[in-house]
Amino acid sequence: MELHVSTVTSTYDKPFCEVFVYLGKEYQPKYFPPERARPGDFRRPGAVVRGTSSCDDVKGVAVAAGRKFGQS
């Protein structure tokens, strides 16, 4: 399992982190339906979970992902 985090910033909002959890090549990529897609969205092979979090909570996100998928 891999956890990938990127920071998203904008002029007026507090930065937040976008989180992708990868479980490996054997998992199919998830795609965004057109009505939910944003300009920055793109396909990430093997990503099975995608979400956002306060950057202060990224460690908690990693722990929760490890518990959900049975790995640490």
Secondary structure elements and pairings:
Elements: E1 2-8, E2 16-22, E3 47-53, H1 58-68
Antiparallel strand pairs: 1-2, 2-3
Protein model, in words:
By secondary structure, the protein is α+β, with helices and mostly antiparallel strands. The protein has one domain (about 1-70). About 15% of the residues lie in helices and about 30% in strands. The chain has one helix and three strands. Strands 1-2-3 form a three-stranded antiparallel sheet, covered by helices on one side. Strand 1 (about 1-10) and strand 2 (about 15-20) form a beta hairpin. The longest helix is centred in the C-terminal third of the chain and has 11 residues, at about 60-70. The termini are close together. The mean pLDDT is about 65.
Give a summary of the structure in a few sentences.
The chain has 1 helix and 3 strands. The protein is an alpha+beta fold and 72 residues long.
Could you give a short account of the major beta sheet?
A: 3 strands, antiparallel
Question: Into how many domains do the coordinates divide?
Answer: 1
For the largest sheet, list the strands in their spatial order.
1-2-3
Number of strands: 3
- Whole-number mean pLDDT: 66
Order of helices and strands: EEEH
- How much helicity do the residues have? 10-25%
**Any idea what the shape is?**
globular
Computed over alpha carbons, the radius of gyration is 13 Å
Q: How far apart are the first and last residues' alpha carbons, in Å?
A: 8 Å
Work out the strand percent.
25-35%
Number of contiguous helices: 1
| Structural class designation | alpha+beta
Poorly predicted regions are none
